[in-house]
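Lecture 7 notes: from sequence to structure.

We start with a single chain of 169 residues. Read the sequence below before looking at the structure.
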Amino acid sequence: MDATTTHEAPAQAIAGLDWNPQLQTGDGRMDDTHEEFVEMLNRLLATPQDQQLPLYREFVAHTVEHFAQEERWMVATGFAPDNCHASHHATILETLNAVVEHYEQGDTEIISRLAEALVEWFPQHAASMDAGLALHMKDVGFDSKTETLADPDRVRPATMSGCGSVSCS
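Now the structure, written as tokens:
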């Protein structure tokens, strides 16, 4: 930090995450939700730190619903409730919820730091766990728009304990 920069100076615009084909999972509804997530993340990064809290609260609410949506789909398609994909969601949500208190106590850079970390985290999560879930949903005939199975007999309740990722054992 040089002598002309202060802690209260507006944050320099941080590079966000471009929505691109590598982030797509193959499920239209999941991809729409992910694109909204990316857009909100980018808006957070473009917002001055002293104005981020209201937008951050909206981002958290969106992420809660985003993860709940995927977890409904997991349950409907045979994932055990304690699968590792849902565990990753829980860890992220725990972190998201802890940020507000720190921000309100004066750490106004924490939202930007978390958003930067999510820019790093999200592409791998989408490409592995979410793409794996999308493939599994397709394989069992699950329609994410209606949240129904074409043939419910193709899925046994709570038979999948992994994360739904092709890289998860």
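The first helix runs from residue 28 to 46. Keep this in mind for problem set 3.
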